Known about the structure:
The structure is a homodimer of 179-residue chains. With 179 residues, chain A is of the alpha+beta class. The first copy, chain A, has helices at 84-96, 151-156, 163-178; strands at 6-15, 19-27, 33-41, 44-49, 55-63, 68-72, 75-77, 98-110, 119-130, 141-147. Chain A folds into two domains: 6-41; 44-178, Nucleoside Triphosphate Pyrophosphohydrolase, CATH 3.90.79.10. Chain A contains three helices and ten strands; from the N terminus they run βββββββαβββαα. The longest helix of chain A has 16 residues, at 163-178.
Amino acid sequence: MLKPEKTLATQQIYxxxxxxxxxxxxxxxxxxxxTREVVKHSxxxxxxxxxxxxxxxxxxxFRHAVGKFLLEIPAGGIDPGEDPVDAxxxxxxxxxxxxPRRIDRLGGFYAIPGYGTEYLHCFFATDLVPGRLVAExxxxxELVRVPSEQIPLLIMSGEICDAKSVAALLLFLCVRQAK
Amino acid sequence: MLKPEKTLATQQIYxxxxxxxxxxxxxxxxxxxxTREVVKHSxxxxxxxxxxxxxxxxxxxFRHAVGKFLLEIPAGGIDPGEDPVDAxxxxxxxxxxxxPRRIDRLGGFYAIPGYGTEYLHCFFATDLVPGRLVAExxxxxELVRVPSEQIPLLIMSGEICDAKSVAALLLFLCVRQAK
Lengths: 179, 179
């Protein structure tokens, strides 16, 4: 019989702009005291976006933490009190310049449950119209359209290589195939 | 034309057991100075494990950072200097008590490229034999066998809900289907 861990104490280590860190002292399943580092980050939305020609809309941007340009699905943090669906509309207008008239929930997942709180709400967006807002920063984000049948190849070749994009795009293809 | 960011300065914030945090000052694509928080974590292996009866071997464990029991694929950190394949053998013996005689690479992905360094090397392991080591801690990890055809349903229903497990399992099914 598995037992949850009991938190005995919490020490706040760092409070940053997007990330905060605390160290909790816990009693583990064996009754022993140990510590757990927890990285707190806002929950996010991640969106598989399709245009009328069955292209998936991806964004290429530089990711400082890994020192590379990555090709990802549009995603971003949910503001405090914001509905995830509103966050999808805002992020798509900021990142790709489109407003989606149809949004379906695909599911969701924790980003790094071993040491972080972030949960990603995963959506499928379509029926796109040019947004009222201008894309946030065209110097740092490039929009890339890829025919949906090429997505598995781009994932298997490592061209798309971040967990949320791989998970959300394969989940989208899986849900579509199941219909 | 997208430009990479240039690191101007680095401030070490926290050096913990599994996680460290630094704040970098960078020149962004528009030439403006800003800061980037970076959570450093060791690279990991994540493994889709199949037995002879086409069951996927999963582990259920309490995840303190999210306050829940999650059903995940076996995974763990790569020790300094350790080959990822050796890490797969070690982790499978520790977490599920089996040694895999066959290991194939599935691909890989960054866990949280927006603010973290962790890269997951993703494998498919099979031809299992009982391991020489005893599973690390049977009080905190429960082994769960699921027929592989049920995996898409467990993901779509949210029963499997962490990014690496969703990504690696769907990637495994995708690669198997492509053969």
